C-alpha cells in the first residue's frame, strides 16, 4: 500500500488501515500478530513514531502484536 503523505488521513491511520485490509484479504489471519514497528517502517518508509502510533491503534482495537522483548509472537 502506498501512503498518501498529503492526504487528509493521518499517516499512522493509513498504515493501520493497511494491516486491517491485509486481515480482510486473508493475507494475515485474524489472530496472527500485526506487523512489528520495524516491518511497518521498512514497508512504508514511515517514521518510527508513525509506525508506533499505528501499532498502538491496532492494539487498542484488540489486534495481537508481537512481543517487543522477544521479537516473536
From TrEMBL:
What's a Pfam family in this record? Answer: GntR
Q: Where is the HTH gntR-type domain?
A: 9-73
Which PROSITE patterns does this chain map to?
HTH_GNTR
Q: Which InterPro entries match?
A: Bact_HTH_transcr_reg (IPR050679), Tscrpt_reg_HTH_GntR (IPR000524), WH-like_DNA-bd_sf (IPR036388), WH_DNA-bd_sf (IPR036390)
Q: Where is this region: Disordered?
A: 1-20, 27-47
Q: Which domain of life is it from?
A: Bacteria
Has the keyword Glycoprotein been applied to this entry? no
The protein's UniProt keywords, in alphabetical order, are:
DNA-binding, Transcription, Transcription regulation
Signal peptide residues are: none
What is this protein identified as?
GntR family transcriptional regulator
What is the species listed in this Swiss-Prot or TrEMBL entry?
Answer: Streptomonospora algeriensis
Amino acid at each position: 500500500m502506498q501512503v498518501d503523505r498529503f492526504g487528509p488521513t493521518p499517516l499512522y491511520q493509513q498504515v493501520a488501515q493497511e494491516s486491517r485490509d491485509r486481515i480482510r484479504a486473508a493475507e494475515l489471519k485474524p489472530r496472527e500478530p500485526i506487523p512489528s514497528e520495524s516491518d511497518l517502517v521498512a514497508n512504508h518508509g514511515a517514521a518510527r513514531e508513525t509506525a508506533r502510533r499505528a501499532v498502538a491503534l491496532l492494539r487498542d482495537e484488540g489486534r495481537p502484536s508481537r512481543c517487543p522483548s522477544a521479537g516473536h509472537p
